[in-house]
Amino acid sequence: MQQDPDLIARTANELVGDLNPQQAEAVQYRGPALLIGAGAGSGKTRVLTRRIAYILSQFGAWPSQILAITFTNKAAAEMRERLAALIGPVAERMWVSTFHSACVRILRRDGKSIGLDSGFSIYDTADCERLVKLIAADLNIDVKRYTPRAILSRISDYKNNLESWQDKLREQAPDYRPGQRGYQIGNPGNAEALYAVVYAEYQHRLAAANAVDFDDLIGRTVELLRRDPAVADYYRHKFRYILVDEYQDTNHAQYVLIRELAGVDAAKGMPALANMPYAGREGQAWITVVGDSDQSIYAFRGADIRNIQDFEQDFPNAKTIMLEQNYRSTQTILDAANAVIAHNEGRKPKKLWTALGKGEPIVGYAADNAQQEAAWIAGEIARLHGEENIAYSDMAIMYRANAQSRSLEEALINAGLPYQLVGGTRFYERREIKDAIAYLQGIVNPADDVNMRRILNVPKRGLGARAEAIVAGYAETNTIPFYAAIERLDSIEGVPTRTANQLRAFRDLMDGLRKFAADPANRPSDIVAEVLSKSGLLDELKKSEDPQDASRVENLSQLQSVAAEFEQNTPDATLAGFLETTALVADSDQLPGEGEDSGKVTLMTLHTAKGLEYPVVFLTGMEQGTFPHSRAMEDASELSEERRLAYVGITRAKRRLYVTRAAVRAQWGQANEMMPSQFLDEIPDGLIDWKRREAGVERMRANWSNGGFDDDEFGGWGDDDFGGTDIRRFDVRFGVARGIGIRFRVRIVWFDVRRLVIRLLLRFVRIVLRFVVRVGRASVRCRRRLALAWRFRDRLPVRFGRSLRIRLVIRQFVVRVELVVAQRTRHHAPCRAENTGSSSAAGTGAPRDNGLNIADFHVGDRITHDMYGLGTIVDTLDKGAKSVITVDFGSAGTKRLMLSRAPIEKL
DNA sequence: GCACCTGAAATTTTT
DNA sequence: TTTCAGGTGC
């Protein structure tokens, strides 16, 4: 046994005593290759951590001999945490990480032998797209026909399958030399050749910039292991036990990586390994993979389900253990999941079971539209919280695509429920953050052309496309990096004086920053602060009048906090290390860890939800075209993947599952009728308790059909449709007017009208325009006009969010006016007084308590009032439900308002 | 070089 | 409905 003070040795009984027979067998199994087929909720993380502990304390392995791989940082962190609880602080010294960060670590250490300097940059999707665009421009590629995205996805496919650019070039375009200038693609119709050329050029430029993309992290590590026997030996010697979580989501490159690391093929000639009590120090490392082929939902990203299906053939002497007892959900939920997944063909039959009993039925709800669906869910959440005392953090709302989150968010805000949205636009993808990071990358890696070119004119310093082209041309002629060309500015000919001065200033700026960063006394957060102030990024945003920029400033300061936090958690924090963590974050990493109670309802996509569980789960948007997604409905294999996604979604629920759908869903402004999802039909009818089986529209439709009417006679269901009339479409736009703090952009999007009165309406439009534009200027008189406009809210479909829509109905004509209001920071779910649960009812006329809380209002706050417009609070009076605020509305006078009744909105 | 205007495209899912 | 990229005029 090892004598490691940081390791708590566990007895076999401690590790398997409380497990079921299959779990115990999996933990204790001795052999070179083990596949644990772990159904949803079967305790797989538990088995994995126990097995690691078992390997350490019973096989006598060193912690450093273990490599445990997961897909997300969060999963890795959680495993490390659980391990620490089980075996002590030694867990911190083990390699428990994602594929990507493990590879970064290997490449940083040993990448030199394949030409990667250890300070390499990691390009995210946006960076890669920029690079492809640059290449496309140089090669005269028609980006309408070949979008950078499509090219990138092809390149990604090549990489996931470990097809090298050299091979592709040899096959498709043997006359091309990467880096060659003035090359014209012979036949632009030859897509394969084009992809090959761009792929080669892309890799060439990545190499020149000392950069890699996400796929390269895996692919180049494989390359390293194959090309450098010394390196391969080192890692094969080091890692004697390799464990991989979510194995069904591995792609070919990851599969090969595991094989190479374990030395499976290198060990083939060696003496037989079977019946060894532990992995030993030579030969193939022992591999444990855990996965569930029914939860494979990343095929679109190259994951190859065959990796798990063929495991037994791929690895000699492989053993499979299936875990089918579920500890998470009720039998009803499992029955639904089993029934749905059974519709997939060609899978190994598997039936999850539980000892937890039948539980509550699944609840179904068919809404008229997305807003109503969301409102009903919000009402239900309020009810569950109020009546059944279920914590908000125990409830999650899931959907197929991020775009669906908006209506749900709005409903939760309206109902005053706290929520947290996971995913969507990520922090590190925000423009201002990317700009700041680009500076940091430029400091660490001056050869990084993509990031250098990004910041050349950010913030604006008079270095436009022209200047960039001059520098880029010089760099290309001399085959030096972009920034190196700037450093040699004086030898570039034909640079206008002004441009030269600006370039010099930029060079001095970057040099200064690099010197600052090089000083060991300056920590990453100091460097971030220095970059933000010296570059002018912060100043530009602070000066800006655009209210969105205010939140950008906040984001930048948050970046600094993140850096500071990084320093706290990392012993030798370097700037490069910080950049690495920012490059490899995932959506799910924002989720609170185990045991932390956020106190909020969680909203996320089904993909993000994988691996999580909640007592109450709402599966929303159960419609054909939404889920399964329209792009996946035709192809049988893609439909199977959608079904697996449904399986994942259903099995997230522990106690209660809700399935909801909307009969009409608007996608980019167009309302569409949606059929119920086929997955709903695949759930046995008896399991679902429908609170509302048919949407209102559908019921009406059914009635009319029964009465012998044809649907068409009633025209469409769009609310702006004048069935049968001659409809003309106009698009009148008006420019931007800057108000005080708020920017209005006004445009008449379209209006429908009978041909005869077009001219009349055009005149009307002009009036409307004048009216609204004045509002934009926010002169005193116009505040009242704005107030007038706001009064339409009650009668008309108006929505709050980034934009405010107002529809004016004048006699039988419809004119839609759109006011785009750039808001200040968006407040998520303000804390309001306790919710009665009645807020789900759709707008009924009677005035009722608006749920505003006096605690949220302070003297000096800005509000808007439906009647009086914008105003400033001059006094507040706390009298509980009868609180009164006094507001100065400028020329409209100063008013005292009953808070609970006033039609006001805080800004 | 920049600000503004206009048409067109976008929504699957992500390390 | 929103965002983006390319074109145009100052």
UniProtKB/TrEMBL annotation:
The cross-references to InterPro entries, in alphabetical order and at most eight, read: DExx_box_DNA_helicase_dom_sf, DNA_helicase_UvrD-like_C, DNA_helicase_UvrD/REP, P-loop_NTPase, UvrD-like_ATP-bd
**Enzyme Commission code:** 5.6.2.4
Positions binding ATP in this chain are 38-45
One GO term of the biological process aspect? recombinational repair
- Which reaction equations make up its catalytic activity? Couples ATP hydrolysis with the unwinding of duplex DNA by translocating in the 3'-5' direction; ATP + H2O = ADP + phosphate + H(+)
Domain (UvrD-like helicase C-terminal) ranges: 331-611
What is one GO cellular-component annotation here?
cytosol
Q: Does the keyword Hydrolase apply?
A: yes
Q: Which residues form the UvrD-like helicase ATP-binding domain?
A: 17-330
The top EC class is isomerase
Give the superkingdom in one word.
Answer: Bacteria
Q: Which UniProt keywords apply?
A: ATP-binding, DNA-binding, Helicase, Hydrolase, Isomerase, Nucleotide-binding
Q: Name one GO molecular function term.
A: ATP hydrolysis activity
The molecule here is called: DNA 3'-5' helicase
Organism expressing this protein natively: Bifidobacterium biavatii DSM 23969
